[in-house]
Amino acid sequence: MKGGASRLQLQHDVEQFLYGQADLLDSRKWQDWIDLFTPDGVYWMPADPAHQHWDGMPAIFAEDRNLMTVRMKRVMHPDAWSQRPLWGTNHIVSNVAIDKVAKNGDVTARSRFHMMELRRDDVRHFAGQYTHQLKKTKDGYRIKLQRVDMTNAQAAYDYVLQVWV
Amino acid sequence: MLQERIADLAKFVEPDRVRKEVYTDPQIFEQEMARIHEKVWIYCGHESQVPKPGDYYTVQIGRQPMILVRGKDRKVHVLYNRCPHRGNMICGDRSGNTGEFFRCSYHAWTFQHDGKLKNIPMMESGYQGTRFGRDNPDCNMKKAARVEGYRGFVFASLVADGPTLKEFLGESRIAFDDMCDRAPGGEVEIVPNCFRVIQHSNWKIFLENQLDALHPSVVHQSTGRAAHEVEKDIAKKTGKAPLSYHMLSAFATVTIDKWDNFQTLNYPHGHCILTGYMGLRPKDPDTLAYEKVMHKAYGKKRTEEILGVNIHHVLIYPGLSVQSPLQQLRAVRPLGVDKTLTEIWHFRLKGAPEPIYRRSLAYYNLVNSPATLINADDLENFWKCHQGLSSDGGDWVSFARFHGRDIEKPGGMVETGPNMGTSEAPMRNQMKAWAQFMGGNR
Description:
Chain A has three helices and seven strands, in the order ααββαβββββ.
């Protein structure tokens, strides 16, 4: 039964981490969100679900912490015109499946997300799959890679994405 | 009312200003599609998009759904995406391979890659004595009236008469020459990904923005400043930030007063060129390695000529914006008077080292992806422009800056005067061409 209990604990810990990740985005705690990543961590939204590597390919997002910082500073700049109108997001994260647990505790997990976005008077919906490579540290999990496969990655974007999904 | 207004379209354009209806009136939009987009040469795609027989992409020319397809004869054909039988669309996907022939999903009529009818089920029994049959060209998928390519870039025109592609492009051909010449092999190859972004504004607002030197330091201040801060931070830690940070920070570090140092060149048919400002010829090891390969391919003198070409944007009116030194282009597809699709492609320089591809890829991802750090603020302004122009708060759009101080050259080229890079000459030039096209002159 011990294995079962620790498996439940692991499931719980990973879920809590993923919920926390989404919550930081929705509450616009950008720096706290960036700090979830390892120093070499990457946020990747592939242009094509068939793509296997974030590097050297066309990508909707392919950002290390430096580029994340550019995006954060841009969004927070008083003259980010497109950020002036009322804007907010609401994530739901679910269907969390743990695919791999390494000996050192690192985890690969898949989950589904649904994000509703309000901008000015317009509501948009984005949904898809997260794949997280999580590194176990003494401060809890840190993200080595957050892969975001949008179901509509290949469709035309009505307006653009300004922050991470 | 319609006839009256359309008959008087010339009155909508003055040398330094344009009536707002040119951007907002749905009837004028229909006329634009008929008189401009469905007549002049429109970019359809690149040869390398359709390498194998049967490979196709669908593409919109004005209001017409078209298919770009590689034939068994190795030629690229451009066809109307329509079955001659009941009008069913033949290709429902954006791209794919149609195999040996096209097959209509409704009644299984089949067509060769050049549109010629191949077969109708039970053809022999049912069509004797009718107007339909293999010898009637009305039974073929209709072809674009003209298809021509320049250095692998394929254009179509939906009317039989008019200037050749080369004549139409004129000096704007440099967009493709500059892009291809930068490849040691003299050719580029498409990166098989298209970013597509919809703007809720008239197509001309986007085109006018492409060579608008007054806007970058205002609109892109937030990203420019953010990138500049991180760029400095990285430089402090590691000595030098990657070039991509400079590409972004230049939007802020090139302040509004510096933009007069650059120049726009304005050509017949509405084409325009903005000279380079980013300084894309650093002396880092990647660039030096690339220059070595170029020397081998072209010799030192020719390499210097090629890499010395200093262009930021080439606007090919009415629907293509090319950034040749970064090997990317945006095709502008008007969807309605207030709705415009941009299709954004990146190309690889054949024979150039990988880091050169990655450098321009960074720009493609950061500036041109649907999570763009730059165009988010452009699109916000385009939408606001369209909203404002739809109001009765004024009747005109002004292009007055440095009006009357342009320098006209033989052959119809108009150059901005010295230290007048922020001249609104490119907008005046585009509207001059617009008025000519709308008056029936190609």
